[in-house]
Amino acid sequence: MKKLILLVSALVFAISLVGCNSKQASDKEKITVWTQAAADHPEGKMFADRVKSYNEAHPDGPKVEIQNITRAGAGSGYIDKLNAAITANEMPDIFTLDGPDIGAYVDSGLLGELDEYMSEGFKDGFTQAIIDQGTVDGKFYGMGYSDSGVAIMYNEDMINALPEDVKALVPSLDQDWTWDQFIELSRKVDEFAKTSDDPAFANYEVPVSLLLTDITAGAYELGTYYFTPLLWGNDANIVAEDGVTVDGVLNSDKSVEALTKYAQLFAEPVLASATESEKTFHTGKSALSVSGFWYVNELINNYPDLKFKTVRYPKMSEDFDGLYTPSGSWAFVRNGQEEDEERIKQIVEVMEWLNNDEASKEYFAKNGSIPTRINSVDAIDTNTDNPYHNDAWTVLKYQAENTNKSRPVSPGYPYLSETFAKDVILKIAQNKTTDEATIKQYLDDAVKKIEIEFEKYKK
Amino acid sequence: MKIVKKTLFYILASLVALQFLLPLIWMILSSFKIDEVIYKDIDTIFAFVPKFSDLSFDSYVELLGFYNIFKNVGNSLIYASVTVVVGLTINSLAGYALARFKFPFKDWILIFIIALMIVPIEATILPLFLVVNEMGLINTIPGYLLPFIINVMNIFLFRQHFLSFPGELIESGKIDGLSEVGCFFRIVMPSSLNMYITVGILTFLASWNDFLWPVMALSNADLMPIQVALNAVFADKYNIFTSHMMAALTIVTIPIVILYIIFQKYIVEGSMQSGIK
Questions:
Q1: Spelled out in words, what is the top-level CATH class assigned to the domain A31-145+329-397?
Q2: Do B227 and B144 belong to one domain?
Q3: Gap from B179 CA to chain A (nearest CA, Å)
């Protein structure tokens, strides 16, 4: 019996050694890429195609191998596997991270910087928001392969039913407008809807859809993504440049002022609800909507009867001329534990292939990913047969090129984002808070919580 | 009076049953509608009594155009079946040993098993990955299946069941010339069919619903089980189709419903025997 146990143990040991050895030997001959896209999904397929074309164009270089790992929700599954691989010292050479998470991984020393290994001028080919998203402490770590955007959409039938003087409040798609104008329009729509029997308002519930229900459901990032621009447009932010200071920033007078304006949506008569029904805008229950870029495909493909128009995300004030519209998405980063200079160059060369102008155009064509390269934004076709598509993409394209701003870089971003969305944005809506003093109190409370959490990041 | 009581009981039971059935009915009906109709009907009676003209197979056709769901269903069926067959044998043998044999540290082993039952899978997933990775079994089917063959909960359930198994039956088997192993496979196992089916179904469901471990242990898309494919449909930020989600969920639910229909008698009996609630 003892002999048998010894034999089995030796066999298992030998198998594990063979596994380790063969792996180490082949590691240097290949470059591994992990992404969060499902292999069967168009996004996973487009990455696989791009890697295939690299291998074909570089038959003598290291072979690039891609693994598309399905994520659930915000990233679990993929992120769990990535973190396990980090612990096991099995990190892939290149992998994807959501833009706001880059700061935390850099803080842990897991990512390698890219500046000194990139081809000349390659970084400048990205839009400013994407460069900012991938930059931590002045060093560039993440090449965003896709951008995003948020605009205001309105129900064309409802707006057409309004009196001419109210209709005149709606901007054209190449016009800026402010939150004050947006709120005024919402109020007029509501006044009209309550007295009108126009069929366009048959299912009317509320003037504006804000998708705050997603925050209640745990999608905190959506709240921060949609509404941090309120602060940006008022020269405020949710965290300081250092990424760890919130006191005096998140609860500054400018922040209070911006959020008090947002709170007007919840003053009686309420213009938006924290508990709006499912697909409020899609089903004609609201006239206006703060809409992510994914609405365009969704509305065109799934709600063919809905006539929707798109206008720009509102500014906080007419005079503001900085970057202020929501943006950012997943990016490619490299394993910072690699020390072989020659190999790092090869890895960054592959990253450039995955993120160059041609790739950016391909990604838009195959999956609707908003291009991150200045020279590729024109790939967005705004002259199709569908006027709703054209309007929406004209606005989103303009914002990607001119006004998109990256979310703040912070090692504690997930906690910051959750607290801001849940304890400020959602709380104002749920409690229908409209006065400055209470909003200031919410912000002070949020700051206290975040400061405690951020202690560990302050060096 | 009796008739009134009986009628009230049936009305109440039907209402409770409906509460559980309605979401399933809504899911199946929604899988045959387009998104626009799903959300227009959502707060009307048409959510459950749809217009015939609103129904079509479009969502299934589109979904299967995107994702080869049946391949993943097939994978899951194989993985769950292997886990059930091998797991039942090993876990019941362990439970039998703990219930009927005397050996050193038996009580300590039992305490250890009970203690392990309270550790959630999320807490052990990382060390599990490290061990399987060290063995060179990541991205292999054995590496995916092995950690979940042995299940402390199932060992405990079998042990509780075998504690009350009549010793006379085993003794009579031995008198007829059966070995200890022979007694187990020819007397104990067949006489505990309800228990095996109950634990088997629990194991099947756990394997069927597992998402995190297959994502960690497997890399090859062709080997992925159904829950991973489902999450790919749900996490799709560019093509959000509720009808696709409902179609995928309907396809995934069918094998489980069939399993319940076939084995429902055993599930109730087994649950009562083992005290599972």
A1: alpha beta
A2: yes
A3: 20
User: Does any CB of chain B come closer than 8 Å to the CB of residue A20?
Assistant: yes
Q: What are the DSSP calls for B90-129, one per residue?
A: HHHHHHHHHHH---TTHHHHHHHHHHHHTS-HHHHHHHHH
Q: Does B67 touch chain A (CB under 8 A)?
A: yes
Q: Which of A396, A203, A195, A380 is nearest to A305 (CA)?
A: A203
Residues B258, B133: one domain? yes
Give the neighbor-by-neighbor strand order of the sheet with A30-35.
A63-68, A30-35, A94-98, A330-334, A143-144
Query: If you count DSSP H runs as helices and E runs as strands, how many of each does chain B have, helices first?
Result: 15, 0
Q: In this complex, do A84 and B129 lie within 8 Å of one another by their Cβ atoms?
A: yes
Best B54, B239, B246 residue to mutate vs chain A (most A CBs within 10 Å) = B239
DSSP state string for A362-377: HHHHHH-PBP-BGGGG
- Give the neighbor-by-neighbor strand order of the sheet with A308-311: A206-209, A286-292, A150-155, A308-311
This prediction has a pTM of: 0.83
**Which residue has 């906080």 as its token pair?**
A316
Q: Per-residue pLDDT for B218 more than 50?
A: yes
Q: Read off the pLDDT of residues A237-279 as tens digits, 9 standing for 90 and up.
A: 999 999 999 999 999 999 999 999 999 999 999 999 999 998 9
Closest CA to A294 of A262, A329, A323: A329
Cβ–Cβ gap A41/B130 under 8 Å: no
pLDDT (tens digit per residue) in A397-445 = 999 999 999 999 999 999 999 999 999 999 999 999 999 999 999 999 9
Environment class of residue B177 by beta-carbon count within 10 Å: exposed (0-12), middle (13-18) or buried (19+)?
Answer: exposed
User: Are B235 and A38 an interchain contact pair (Cβ–Cβ within 8 Å)?
Assistant: yes
Instruction: Tell whether B184 and B225 lie within a shared domain.
Output: yes
Assess whether B101 and B234 both reside in one domain. Answer: yes
A95 has which bridge partners? A34, A333
Distance from CA of A420 to the nearest CA of B (A): 23
Q: Which residues of B touch A368 (CB under 8 A)?
A: 238
- Whether ipTM > 0.90 holds is no
Size of interface A-B (CB pairs under 8 A): 120
Same domain flag for B182 and B93: yes
User: Under DSSP, is residue B192 helix (H, G, I), strand (E, B) or coil?
Assistant: coil
Q: Check CB contact of B224 with chain A, cutoff 8 Å.
A: yes
Q: Find all residues with CB under 8 Å of A59, minimum gap 6, and list them.
A: none
Do the Cβ atoms of A328 and A146 come closer than 8 Å?
no
What distances in angstroms separate CA A278 from CA A21, A116, A214, A300, B41, one per listed residue? 54, 48, 10, 18, 11
The CATH number that applies at residue B93 is 1.10.3720.10
- In terms of Cα–Cα distance, which of A327, A334, A336 is closest to A143? A334
Q: Does A171 touch chain B (CB under 8 A)?
A: no
In tens, the pLDDT along A310-359 reads 999 999 988 899 999 999 999 999 999 999 999 999 999 999 999 999 99
Of the candidate CATH numbers 3.40.190.10, 3.30.1330.10, 3.40.228.10, 3.30.450.20, the domain formed by A150-327+407-455 belongs to 3.40.190.10
- Alpha carbon of residue B109 to chain centroid: 27
CATH fold match for the domains A31-145+329-397 and A150-327+407-455: yes
Domain that residue B193 falls in: 63-275
CA distance A274 to A260: 16
Q: Side chain identity at A366, as an amino acid letter?
A: K
A227 to A224, A230, B169, B265: CA distances (angstroms): 5, 6, 72, 54
Per the listing, tokens 């060369």 go with: A349
Say yes or no for a CB contact (<8 Å) between A71 and B235: yes
Q: Does B237 touch chain A (CB under 8 A)?
A: yes
Going from the C-alpha of B260 to that of each of B21, B149, B205, B230, the distances in angstroms are 14, 22, 11, 21
